[in-house]
Amino acid sequence: MANRSGTAQRPNGQTQGKICQFKLVLLGESAVGKSSLVLRFVKGQFHEYQESTIGAAFLTQTICLDDTTVKFEIWDTAGQERYHSLAPMYYRGAQAAIVVYDITNQDTFGRAKTWVKELQRQASPNIVIALAGNKQDLANKRLVEYEEAQTYADENGLLFMETSAKTAMNVNDIFLAIAKKLPKNEQNTGQTGSGQGRRLTEDNPDNKTVMNCCK
Amino acid sequence: MIVEMSLQLLKHPQMQFGATTFFAKQHKGDTCGSNGLPLTPNSIIIVGRAQILKTFNCKYLCQYLDVIRGKHERTIVVSQYCGEPLVSCIEKRPFDWQEVRQIAFQCIGGLQVLHKKKIIHRTLSNENILLQANNEIKLFNYGLYHMSDAGSLVSFPILHVLYTAPEVFLNGLSNSIADPKCDIWSLGICLAELILNKLLWSSLKLGQRIRKVLSMLQASTSILEKIAREHNCLERYLSIPDDLKDLIEACLNVHPNKRPTCEELLIKPCFDSLKPKDMAEKNEDIYRPFQIFTLHEFYHWWQLAGGDVPQELKKQGLIRSTPPILSIPSLVLIEGTILGQDRNPATLYDPRIVKMPLDTLYQRFAHIPFQVFYPLIHSQSDIIEKSNPPPYDATGLPLIIKERDPEYQLHRVILLRRLLHGYPFTSDLIVDEAKKDIPPLLRGEIWAALLSVRSNYATEYMRIDKYTHTSTDRQIEVDIPRCHQYNELLSSSEGHKKLKRILKAWVYKNSQYVYWQGLDSLTAPFLFLNFNDEAKAFACLSNFVPKFLYNFFLKDNSAVIEEYLCKFSQLIAFHDPQLANHLRDINFYPQLFAIPWFLTLFSHVFPLYKILHLWDKLLLCDSSFPIHIGLSILTQLRDRLLTSGFNECILLFSDLPEVDIEKCVALSSCTYENTPKSITSREHENEVYHKKSNLDITGVSLNELKNELCPRISVRDVANILLKNPHKMLLIDIRNTRAYKRCSVVNSTHIPFSSVSFTENIIENVGRDSDLLKSKGEKIVVVVGDEETDLETFPKFLLQCNISKVCVLHGGFNKFLELPASLSIPCASVGDPSERQRN
Questions:
Q1: ipTM for the complex shown
Q2: Which residue of A has its CA nearest to B600?
Q3: Which of B89, B119, B652, B673 has the maximal Cβ count within 10 Å?
Q4: Nearest by CB to A55, which of B491, B595, B645?
Q5: pTM (2 decimals)?
Q6: Is A37 in contact with A100 (CB distance < 8 Å)?
Q7: What angle do CA B33, B38, B40 make, to 5 degrees?
């Protein structure tokens, strides 16, 4: 099971396994709950009035998967369409993406599909994409059917879960599912700690290959 | 003696206030609305709705001063309270006819003001008509029905049985058909009591009183007569002059639609003798005479001097805490329904009013000289200036203390109110005072003055379409419930509505711009400060954006923001090369963390109270100040940044640690003042505020800028510093020897580009002049080249050697030749120092 606690992420003597780092990006229309999902996953918290994200926010979380320690470097992006031009800066070189929509709002699902298309076209070819139908706690006001989203996810080879940042439903699970699906080769083992600042690959397309542990 | 005069000023009989308290209705069971967000507590809605009441300033109305939220939805209303309720005068002394006319006239005047503002009193009674010593009256507690949204936000009925119009009972109390005519009926009953000098049905119980009110519906004769008969004062009734009888009977018409309005009542003949006769009196309504200080300010000082309304209510027993165990219900169903819980009697309406004690304030202000209330603003006579009492000295105190010092705030408020009264003629004086500090009570008005808001702002705002649906609405709607919601005003439904209107108006008015997320946060401080003057908040925003965020909200703002961020990086390099080098080494670009800083000028990053202090300073500076604020934040976190890698750094900014704002302001002001203006000059600056000539920096493309790690400096700044403070500057001429010998600035240091090895970042590589650079201290290092020299490598080299304040002369050496005579600097050919060349 995932180790979700905020502390003790350093691998100790008992879990002398591989350590992998993955860059993960969250995309989706504004106010669908991207920041809330990350906050729930990273800190186990939920804020009713989660402030809007401008530009992007960065957080990390480490989970244990069998004998592997997986460190997620999460870029939580701004949802408003206008910030779109910034998005490539964050998803370039990402090994995983969660595209989020709000199950009570059909438009946000449409926007999620657009994001998936863009990722398929522009992002790393091996990127693992998960689709998250958030706000499952408001299922009585649902406007996007589970089956509809499931079918879409199947057709596009996406992981899919309905989540609720508020009740924590499926939040860890979706990150865990991504972690499982990400290939973990030897290349990245032991590469934790500070001083590896090359997350942003704005000017240097080579970084993608250096970073990408799926290669 | 003079001191006594100032106390007299403070002890004005109408400078008194009191408080009442009640509980707002609590939400039952499920506390989430349809959007998944928690329901706004009713007390917050009340606070929002009550704000408008604070603006009423009519001599017939008690001024509302404050609405305070306590625990468990407790709401405390603070309002002016002076004089004596009429109910305690009736049966004690007779009122003559003329007195009754006067009282009626003033009551109608007060009601008229309320009705014009679509506010229904609903609880008008002789208990809340307060008689002043000069026979003036003031209506009290007229806002309860409004602030409780026609009673729907409280769990008790809002009425005074005896005075309530019969149709209110007939329509049902929960039915909130708002009809101002019910106040006219209440007025009729008040006047009937007064004129008959009898407290009506005082011995009857509640139920019987309701029956009495309803029995009026069947009255066949005049209602006033019926009342008189029932109270055995028919004789008195018969002696009432016809004009008064007619007035009261008109009010006591059982058909609300036949009851006259305030306007209709005021033209009745009985008031002929009371209408203002001369122009001066008429004009008083239009131009209120200048008040030395207002009741709001008085209340503010009272609070600063230790006044505490909830504490007073506790002392008087109006707020009592009961042990929680007593409120445990017998049964709670799974869905949340509660059974068998006694109603807490405190949730009923409590009519008690507690007058607030003012003695502490009087004592505190007892020594204040009278002249303080009439501050000398400017004088050409030294004698007069010297005779003025010395200003209250608080310069050394921290801002937080100054803001809480009652004496200091008294001085500041009195002075700045005077200056604001003279705005716009006193603009310069306001700026000067704002440099010292801004009294929190007047911040909204002072900011508007600093932003040059013009007097016709309200009309302009009124003309803007704020209602037509646009494609931006969805975004605005999802952003508002997330914007500074810890604040009561901004989280109230009134706050949401106002913010939405302002944002829509801004988008409508600025068709060249679009709504970017973050504009909501940017608007929040203005709305918070001008909650009762939406138009002013809008005007402030409208003037703020072109001044500080020119073109930041273009649909494609990337060039503007990129340039801004580049200048930010350069400023870090200029002041803190070590930090700049480290951040660059770990690829920690401002793009990753500083966009919300600059796009919202920190309003998305800091809580409101910090933004206010930050912007107090910002408003006195230009659009480069935010970069300095950014630098000051980095400086505060410097040690942690220098020892951290990329992840730690970015995490630090995702969850910004506590930043000391006073320190931040001090640091940023310091670098702002010690940085030549052209260092932060941008192509995308607003030309209105930054006029440029050939002596300034122009025509730098974004690509050029991105490659330059060190900022450019204009020849104007170089010349100014060389002429005024030559010891503050080190000119390094890196042109080849031939060019240098032909002509160079006197006392410049020559380090030919070709003589330096850039293989390692060691300052000694520059040769014999390396000591000069190492020991340069705070001097600005200007690298001078010409079109033939590489102007990137050398400054970069200096930067990497951790040399601070390195910049490059824009336009190269030849720019010196363009200087006008007033700025010409000594140039010479080496070998002939006597030759002074100038163009």
A1: 0.82
A2: A54
A3: B119
A4: B595
A5: 0.90
A6: yes
A7: 95
